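#lab-general

N.A. 3:47 PM
ok so I finally got the sequence cleaned up, no stray characters, all 156 residues accounted for. can someone with queue access submit it? mine expired

B.Y. 3:52 PM
send it over

N.A. 3:53 PM
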Amino acid sequence: MSELLLSILRIGFLIALWWFVLTVVSVLRRDLQAPRDAKPLTPARTSKRPSPRPTLRSRKTATKLVIVEGALTGTVIPLGSVPIIIGRAPDATVVLDDDFVSTHHARLTPNGNHWIVEDLGSTNGTWIDRTRVSAPTVLRPGTQLRIGRTSMELNT
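B.Y. 4:20 PM
back already:
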């Protein structure tokens, strides 16, 4: 092959290599700047309509945590005024023997008439319905909370 052809192939390969690197950097940048999936603790109001009056049911605070799916199905944990830690550690309030649960996975904290769920940096995440929790989030009664293979709900 001639020297000219080899030089053209080298330059073409160098251009293709830089195009690939810049494409990877662009994809990573877009992925890192993507919005999170969690619902914030205090959602922003978008409408000017007055909020509906709370019903008697929404004024009630949850009194128990019921495990509806998983190894502890049917277990009822009474709720009080202290936070509840969920995880695999023996010192957790609710101990889940599951490979998909972190040692200290999530915390449920009372806040007035509501309970706030917070993921404690778990590997596999804490889920409310089908949304991953990435910030402290209000957990409403009847809403499904999933940690590993276990699903639970707050009940009144």
